[in-house]
């Protein structure tokens, strides 16, 4: 068990007085791995001892974490390893964005591409999905994952705080903004966050997130939808 910073525990207790104990316990539980099958590449489930994830199609918790690096099915694109909570996003997106029409969608801060791939799998009728990130190196992971899963996206390197004019007009029908954050909601998979995160980081992330949102609005078409996502559970973010 990794001890959480005292100031972070205090924030949780203030924000979630009735659930604080359960949240703190959950943030220290790294016992499960979650995957979603790629329906275009796999007709059967290759895993044993699984539990279905109720909020995501073709998704499961695994009782044991296999060695994905050496699994030919992984490299063939049969499945994607993804945090279970982030699988909510594609479902929310589908509920609130009219995907019966051909739409142009922007996935911002897209690397490593899990959410972009999930959107493409759930909504194959999208006109175009643009995966954007400020890091060229991280965008290569998006390219690798979409190719492995047999999907297609447009990849653009850009800073959301100052998007190039070509992305602002005619703009996008929908935007997914998975912004940089403190990662306080996924500490169980990132134990270094428990050791390195500082209180001052929260306000700095909040400022960065606001700047990103301000940069994004001009790229959203009138009547479009923007889904704002963080891996934080703190109100400030």
What can you tell me about this protein's structure?
The structure is a single chain. The chain is of the alpha/beta class and 237 residues long. The chain is 34% helix and 20% strand. The chain contains 9 helices and 9 strands. Strands 7-6-5-8-9 form a 5-stranded parallel beta sheet, with helices on one face. A 4-stranded antiparallel beta sheet has the order 2-3-1-4, with no helix packed on it. α1 (6-15) packs across α2 (20-26) and α4 (88-96) crosses α5 (114-122).
- How many individual helices? 9
The CA-CA distance between the termini, in Å, is 26 Å
User: What is the overall silhouette?
Assistant: globular
Number of β-strand runs: 9
Rg result: 18 Å
* Order of strands across the main sheet: 7-6-5-8-9
* Helicity level: 25-40%
What's the helix-strand series? Answer: HHEEEHEHEHEHEHEHHE
| Average of the residue pLDDT scores | 89
Q: Beta-strand level of the residues, as a percent range?
A: 15-25%
**Poorly predicted runs:** none
Largest sheet: 5 strands, parallel
The assigned structural class equals alpha/beta
List the SSEs and their pairings.
Layout: H1 6-15, H2 20-26, E1 33-37, E2 50-52, E3 59-62, H3 72-75, E4 79-81, H4 88-96, E5 104-108, H5 114-122, E6 128-133, H6 136-148, E7 154-157, H7 165-168, E8 172-178, H8 191-196, H9 199-216, E9 220-229
Parallel strand pairs: 5-6, 5-8, 6-7, 8-9
Antiparallel strand pairs: 1-3, 1-4, 2-3
């Amino acid at each position: 068990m990794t001890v959480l910073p005292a100031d972070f525990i205090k924030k949780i207790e203030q924000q979630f007085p009735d659930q604080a104990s359960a949240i703190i316990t959950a943030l220290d539980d790294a016992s499960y791995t979650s995957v979603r099958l790629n329906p275009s590449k796999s007709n059967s489930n290759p895993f044993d001892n699984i539990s279905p994830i109720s909020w995501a199609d073709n998704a499961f918790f695994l009782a044991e974490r296999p060695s994905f690096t050496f699994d030919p099915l992984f490299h063939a694109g049969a499945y994607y390893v993804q945090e279970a909570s982030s699988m909510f996003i594609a479902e929310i997106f589908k509920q609130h964005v009219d995907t019966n029409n051909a739409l142009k969608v922007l996935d911002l801060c897209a690397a490593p591409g899990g959410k972009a791939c999930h959107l493409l799998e759930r909504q194959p009728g999208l006109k175009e999905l643009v995966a954007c990130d400020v890091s060229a190196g991280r965008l290569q992971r998006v390219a690798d994952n979409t190719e492995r899963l047999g999907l297609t996206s447009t990849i653009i390197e850009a800073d959301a705080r100052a998007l190039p004019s070509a992305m602002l007009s005619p703009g996008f029908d929908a935007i997914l903004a998975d912004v940089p954050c403190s990662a306080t909601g996924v500490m169980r998979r990132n134990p270094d966050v428990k050791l390195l995160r500082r209180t001052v980081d929260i306000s700095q992330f909040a400022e960065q997130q606001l700047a990103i949102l301000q940069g994004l609005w001009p790229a959203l078409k009138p009547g479009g939808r923007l889904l704002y996502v963080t891996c934080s559970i703190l109100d400030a973010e």
